[in-house]
Amino acid sequence: MKNLGVVLGDSDLQAKIVKKRKRMFQIAEKYGMNSRSTIKVSQELDILINQYQRLKYPS
Question: What Pfam families does its record include (predicted)?
Answer without folding.
Answer: SpoOE-like
